[in-house]
Amino acid sequence: MEDLAWLDKFTGQTIDELLALSNEYCLDSLIMVLGCDLDQKAHRFGEQSLSREERIFLAVSALELEVGNGGYSQFFSNASNDYVPIIVDSLLQIGCPETAKITQSAINVLGVKDLTPQTVEEAVASENDARDEKLDQYGQQYYATGEEIAGRLFEFVRANKDAISPWKTPSKQS
To answer: Domain count of the chain?
Structure first.
């Protein structure tokens, strides 16, 4: 298979235009661009402007990015920890049950009952070598599952494209 180009920026107005680029550009780059645009939408219009499907997308793409760069500890200690309460369900929604199981185990190791960004971050910040070792093991298991997370996430976008619209201003509800 030939290497696909990396898409740095997308200025299209429809999700269909982005989906059409999947034969030309690397899936990881398409996911990154869409994630950045959805983050901007949330920043401009507030978290409430995001659809359930957009939140699922952002949760899974944040997990992929953070675990890939620094393991579960990084996912739990960065701004991505906003998605901890929904990440397991999000993984199940895109068809990644093994990754969901591993991620739930990583969350359980934190020993936090109330999953808020602050409590998760505090749990990870405390010294605990046994916990850190377990999180590292779960990070290794994350990659050993063989689940094609990026591909499944992109298929989730394709199947839910009507609910994912980062370039549209959310309509006002009366």
So the answer is: 1
C-alpha to C-alpha distance for 72 and 81, rounded to whole angstroms: 10
Q: Give the count of beta carbons closer than 10 Å to the beta carbon of residue 30.
A: 23
Exposure string for 121-148, b = 16+ CB within 10 A, e = fewer: bebbeeeeeebeebbebbbebbeeeebe
Residue 37 lies in a domain: no
Q: Tokens 């991620």 map to which residue?
A: 103
Q: Which pTM was predicted? A: 0.92
Helix (H, G, I), strand (E, B) or coil at 48: helix
Per-residue model confidence as pLDDT tens for the chain (174 residues):
458 899 888 777 688 989 999 999 999 999 999 999 999 999 999 999 999 999 999 999 999 999 999 999 999 999 999 999 999 999 999 999 999 999 999 999 999 989 999 999 999 999 999 999 999 999 999 999 999 999 999 999 999 999 998 877 666 543
User: Which range marks the domain in which residue 137 is found?
Assistant: 52-160
Rounded to an integer, what distance in angstroms lies between the CA atom of residue 94 and that of residue 43? Answer: 25
Please give the structure tokens belonging to residue 156: 């989730």
